[in-house]
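Quiz preparation item.
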């Protein structure tokens, strides 16, 4: 039931409308750029790539990053070069392009740059992280969405009625209730919807009813695709529950991921990031706990490793929260981009030679440990940023003590003090 024309293609109206990103490309034969199609399973990435290539008059060649290696890639490139000499251009479609390692992705670059192939990649993973920047910079990224109920219903009805490729020869009817269940259980995935329809049809004589769909589904929850939409939604719920200091919700989403087969080390990495991004110096032990959990899991593995991840999850959920460290590096990075490479103040520069010392390098630097308090008020930022503050400790947990210490050291007013 794969759509044979763009007119049959369901969903993704945000990409295919007249004023959409793909609108101008649809009317320009031969002008299809290298593109990455990012979206959940069953959203139409492969089909859209194929139809766009056909609309542009390109020969469509497909390989899978899971099943193909460098040998297959070289063979397709060689054929594309031969076709190009004959005046034909090739669209090379790489399914699950994120499964290619960096070296394999690098191998594509020369042929994309020379125009030997128009690269069309499909991925369920965020290309910002899984596709090398050199390929991304030479490609347009189009984001596909999980199919909505209307699109899924249309796909199911077409398959039911199509006599050539679908179930039309059976003359089956489909109750509205059964259709609603198929759409709900398909969870935005056209392939899953068609699979449910086909399996339910095998159980029905004249009318496909809700019990037929339920039997086809075998009372299972929709699969949690580690590379699909569920992956991103559940990890988002997990992180937001941690940030919201709800240990019950956080450990529930942790269990959802583990039971569905999520990679535990991925969860451990996210806990370490969270410990710095959302707990920070409000409880510096949070990072210690997260790192220890990652190391402990590597030693004990599953199933006991669930206990380790649960301990780290509940600790971080209950910890005081601060994103001051995240805001500090973001602000500092912004200053670097805005001001460029500001000169290092002379008194902070390294002075390993007499000539540099004569030029003032390191002169007038005050060594903090020579002071009884081990602190000297000094200018450590470039002149253009002299009064800038990037790190603003909060009043949460251990950061309250840090804030008080910094106010005392630098003579800064207490924002909570009367009249300050």
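Solution:
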């Amino acid at each position: 039931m794969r759509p044979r024309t763009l007119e049959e293609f369901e969903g993704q109206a945000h990409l295919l409308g007249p004023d959409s990103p793909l609108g101008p490309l649809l009317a320009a034969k031969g002008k299809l750029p290298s593109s990455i199609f990012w979206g959940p399973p069953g959203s139409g990435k492969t089909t859209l790539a194929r139809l766009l290539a056909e609309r542009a008059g390109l020969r469509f060649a497909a390989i899978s990053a899971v099943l193909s290696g460098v040998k297959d890639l070289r063979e397709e490139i060689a054929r594309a070069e031969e076709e190009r000499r004959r005046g034909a251009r090739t669209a090379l479609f790489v399914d699950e392009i994120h499964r290619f390692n960096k070296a394999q992705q690098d191998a594509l670059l020369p042929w994309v740059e020379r125009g030997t192939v128009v690269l069309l990649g499909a991925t369920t993973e965020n290309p910002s992280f899984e596709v090398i920047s050199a390929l991304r910079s030479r490609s347009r990224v189009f984001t596909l969405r999980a199919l909505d109920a209307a699109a899924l219903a249309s796909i199911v009805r077409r398959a039911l009625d199509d006599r050539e490729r679908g179930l039309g020869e059976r003359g089956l009817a489909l109750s509205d209730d059964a259709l609603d269940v198929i759409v709900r259980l398909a969870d935005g995935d056209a392939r899953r919807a068609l699979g449910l329809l086909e399996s339910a049809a095998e159980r029905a004589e004249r009318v496909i009813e809700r019990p037929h769909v339920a039997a086809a589904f075998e009372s299972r929850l929709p699969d949690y695709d580690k590379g699909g939409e569920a992956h991103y939604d559940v990890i988002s719920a997990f992180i937001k529950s941690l940030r919201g200091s709800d240990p019950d919700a956080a450990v529930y989403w942790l269990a959802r991921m583990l039971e569905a087969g999520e990679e535990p080390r991925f969860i451990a990495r996210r806990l370490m990031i969270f410990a710095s991004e959302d707990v920070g110096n409000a409880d510096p032990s949070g990072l210690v706990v997260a790192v220890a959990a990652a190391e402990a899991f590597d030693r004990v593995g599953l199933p006991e490793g669930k206990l380790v991840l649960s301990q780290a999850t509940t600790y971080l959920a209950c910890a005081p929260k601060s994103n001051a460290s995240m805001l500090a590096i973001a602000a500092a990075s912004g200053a670097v981009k805005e001001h460029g490479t500001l000169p290092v103040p002379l008194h902070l520069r390294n002075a390993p030679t007499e000539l540099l010392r004569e030029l003032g390098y390191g002169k007038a630097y005050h060594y903090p440990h020579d002071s009884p308090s081990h602190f000297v008020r000094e200018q450590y930022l470039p002149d253009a940023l002299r009064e800038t503050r990037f790190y603003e400790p909060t009043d949460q947990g251990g950061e309250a003590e840090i804030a008080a210490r910094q106010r005392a050291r630098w003579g800064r007013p207490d924002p909570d003090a009367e009249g300050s």
